[in-house]
């Protein structure tokens, strides 16, 4: 393989890994936001000055459990690590 090919593979790995991690982190943050908002509403309903309707939010922890799947996170990190290794190989090839 040529240095240019290795650099291109490193860039592609970096883009794929970053995209996967961004997608996964967005999912985790949306699940945590949902649970935090549900928790806040439940606390407000327990306050003595609450005169509104009572809302029951079921299955909020289910969203967090769904967001805890680690496959995409691990895949994203593997692509980023591969990118770093490929960049190191290209650098070593260029200097020899």
From TrEMBL:
The chain crosses the membrane at residues 72-94. This is Uncharacterized protein. The keyword Transmembrane applies. The lineage of its organism: Bacteria, Pseudomonadati, Pseudomonadota, Gammaproteobacteria, Enterobacterales. Keywords: Membrane, Transmembrane, Transmembrane helix.
